[in-house]
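Tip: read the tokens left to right.
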């Protein structure tokens, strides 16, 4: 993968991670304010919240691995 293509994929990954984090924060906000009760059954909301949290964590891990790759390429 060329350097510009890799840089582009890092930027895309950062954007997906940021989106996942915003979504996670939204669910946490709904939870803390208890507004979720207006829109969801408890079981459904908890499932969606877990998925949002896992999604944000997964994008963070991918971004971390990509950062490791960039660091090792710079060292070489």
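Filled-in amino acids:
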């Amino acid at each position: 993968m060329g350097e510009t293509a890799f840089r582009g994929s890092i930027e895309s990954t950062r954007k997906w991670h940021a989106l996942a984090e915003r979504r996670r924060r939204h669910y946490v906000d709904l939870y803390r304010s208890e507004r979720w009760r207006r829109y969801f059954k408890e079981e459904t909301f908890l499932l969606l919240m877990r998925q949002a949290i896992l999604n944000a964590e997964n994008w963070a891990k991918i971004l971390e691995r990509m950062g490791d790759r960039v660091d090792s390429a710079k060292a070489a």
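Residues 13 and 63 are 6 Å apart (CA to CA). The chain has a mean pLDDT of 87.
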